Sequence to fold (439 residues):
Amino acid sequence: MNILKKTILTIILTFIIHTVFSQTTIFMEKENGVYQIPCKVNGIPMKFIFDTGASDVTISLTEAQFLIKQNLLSENDIIGKEKYQIANGDIEVGTKIILKEISIRGLVLHNIEASVIHSQQAPLLLGQNVISKLGKLELEGNRLTIYPLKKNNYDEFIGINLTKNFSEFNDELSPYLSLKDGKEDVELTPIPFEALNIIEHKLKEYQFDKKVIVFSTNEKVQIVLLFKETKDGGKEILKNLIDEFTQIYSIPNFKDNRSAEWKFEDYELNVSLDTSNNITVAYLKSVPNVYPEKKNSRYSDLDLTERRQLFVDGLNEIYKDGNPPNYKVIYRFSKSEFQIIIERNMEEGYPKNFSNYNKNELEEIENYEKDHLETFARIFFNPNENEFLIDNEYETVKIFGEYYYKGASVRKAQIEFKVDDFYKLQYPYTESEFHNIIQ
Fold:
């Protein structure tokens, strides 16, 4: 199977798994009888009262003064002064401002109007001007689940009509749908834009190196995939793409410094920058049937063991051919533990015999191995994408490392953390914040 087909299969399987957990879950803290939701305002962590009755975001004079001292709020952000009637009926004077960014577990809103109440003790309220933009909300106890807003017409992407079948793009290419890949039928066929007579599209200015539409055997569009190699400027291109898609599809369900994802009922969109500075845009209109019939049953209808097995099977399928060189990663579960086993063959240059190493040198190697496991965990997990830990009732995550040094015995390392501690982190978290939950 060539690289392009492996890429397509990986995208599909990743979307299948993420679709099961496409909502965002936030665990709020109850203080003085009210729920508070952790946010970041212009990068500063704050806790807001989740107030569906408030029209706007409000902060106190204390928070405003702190933002000013940190150069995160300036005169240019002030709109003017207004008077407000607070809950007890009193009239308070406030200042209308613009907050450049409010981040809630990876959901990022820009240029939000807010009110500064001229009181040091005024409560921080998260009002409807933010709540209404997040999506459909479901509150159960302290667990707030956000389902993405359905935006835009899923039958169109970057100006391409996705309702057209294969032959409607170019009927001379229909025989390609009967191609064989070895002994297996080709369930998905990628065709370049040029072969489909697609010359104009809304991302043409980015000059993508590869542009394909992936069709199923029923001639329906499944995926639109664009790829660009960038030596320099990859981050700037990524930012521009994210800004452009945000204007069309609203805020992403997830965003970090290398990717953004939008998830809807009928389609999903991912924009990413890999470590080689390559940009990928993947639009999935519908999820193909690549799992056995049993696994296509409703996720909620499966019992706990079946749900756990479905997820680890999907992960092992994705990564069985896609591990980095010298790596093998295995996913499994045991009762209430989610487990990851990493086997790594250490390349040349590492010690081959540890018998002559003193205690400090051995501790240094042990710390390196545990740091490697923590780095893997930080990349693999984030609270915005791993609701499966809660849904599958896992209590603990354990990651085992087996390091094979040539000429020496295998060395083993292990880290673990409690799921409850993990969900108390506010994404994006720092290395030290993640390290603190490691037991």
